[in-house]
Amino acid sequence: MRYSLWSLLGNAIGGHERWPRAWRSPEPKRFYDVVIVGGGGHGLATAYYLARNHGITDVAVLERGPIGLGNTGRNTTVVRSNYLCDDSAHLYEHALKLWENLSHELNFNTMFSQRGVVNLAFTRHELAEMERRAGAMRLNGIDCELLTVADLKRWIPILDTRDTARHPLLGGLVQRRGGNARHDAIAWGYARAANALGVDIIENCAVTGIRQHGGRVVGVDTSRGHIAAGRVGVAVAGHCSVVMGLAGVKLPIQSFPLQALVSEPVKPVLHTVVMAGHVHVYLSQSDKGELVIGAARDNYVSYAQRGSFHLIEEQLRALLGLFPVFSRLRMMRQWAGIVDCAPDASPIIGKTPVANLYVNCGWGTGGFKATPGSGWVFAHTIVNDEPHPLNRNFTLERFHTGRLVDEAAAAGVAH
């Protein structure tokens, strides 16, 4: 124990000189079988599953800065699969099952905590919608329980469940297998595991162009030179329309800021994730004791990683209406991520009009929870040039056929 303590102190003072690198920092090669644009959770997961599931290791992940500093590092870390539509339910449930074994799979602690996700109902309409969603979830073999107000009081003792409360409750819905994970751990875990399988992770490498020849993609131009590629997958949450525009592909998505707050740390008082869509707030308590608080997206198109002040006021007003005990709690910091939203609030995962160019975008507020499942199906799509059964209805073609996957109710404020 004495040796370990002194070793730890020595590394802390000495700047970790003897710590091994988690992944290599290679110079980009002139050609790769597959180039993944985007070094967030989805891009790294795709590279990992290309190598692990399909044996394709000649892969480069290109990130314009350090990995994990985009939306992966700017979200509220909620993981759940309580969706209404069959297509969404199956995709997110597959992701949740992967989450349950991911720390072991990657040999990296993702800090996945299945503390449950509770949705609150304040109106009869909202309660009826939860009953409908619970029925759909059960038919798809996904766990859920409807809660009475008495159940909510036992589940969340600090919640104001009085009849005279600012926001009187009628009931709720809980998915016990849902919860939280560590946002940066998922990026680091997939990066290290992909690197170990031979994938090149190239940071500080911005993509500035997508080259085509004869209607097919042949490579990308970057701030570190041209990189030829057999296939290119784009997973750039928040900026996919910009990157795909380099190839002349227009996507039916818009980008909005989605902001969150973190409070000062306090002792453990909230053991679950609470979502209140009707009053526009959701929250959980981190392992450090901070409250992580989110709300609805800002309703203006922007790439600014900050939000409007009136939305902060609105979500804190809702928070105190539900939890008066937090009235003296101070907020430490605020930030925003950029969410790409499709018209039906569902992702786009599939081929594009340019041969050998694939896109993974439009997750809106649901991207983090889907990370493992997204990477799994996107890797399959790139390798086979056709969708996985789980994403066959999430392709661009649905906006021509009209077969939309409308998840606006499940993917709004509560995410």
- H-E order: HEHEEHHEHEHEEHEEEEHEEEEHEEEHH
Distance between the termini: 43 Å
Largest sheet: 8 strands, mixed
**Number of helix segments?**
11
What is the oligomeric state here?
single chain
Gyration radius (Cα, Å) is 22 Å
The CATH topology of the largest domain corresponds to FAD/NAD(P)-binding domain
What's the CATH first level of the largest domain? Answer: Alpha Beta
Query: Quick check: average pLDDT?
Result: 93
Number of domains: 2
How does CATH name the architecture of the largest domain? 3-Layer(bba) Sandwich
Helix content: 25-40%
Low-confidence stretches: none
General description of the model:
The protein has two domains: 24-113 and 178-253 and 343-415, 3-Layer(bba) Sandwich (FAD/NAD(P)-binding domain); 114-177 and 255-341, D-Amino Acid Oxidase, subunit A, domain 2 (D-Amino Acid Oxidase, Chain A, domain 2, 2-Layer Sandwich). 29% of the residues lie in helices and 24% in strands. It has eleven helices and 18 strands. The protein has helices spanning 2-14, 41-54, 86-100, 102-106, 124-139, 149-155, 183-196, 240-245, 309-322, 371-384, 398-401; strands at residues 31-37, 59-62, 78-79, 117-121, 145-147, 171-175, 179-180, 200-202, 207-213, 216-222, 225-234, 254-263, 273-276, 281-285, 291-294, 331-341, 348-351, 357-361. Strands 1, 2, 8, 9, 10, 11, 17 and 18 form an eight-stranded mixed β-sheet that branches. Helix 2 packs parallel to helix 7, helix 2 packs across helix 10 (371-384) and helix 3 crosses helix 10 (371-384). The longest helix is centred in the N-terminal third of the chain and has 16 residues, at 124-139. It starts with a helix and ends in a 14-residue tail after the last helix. The model has no long low-confidence stretch (mean pLDDT 93).
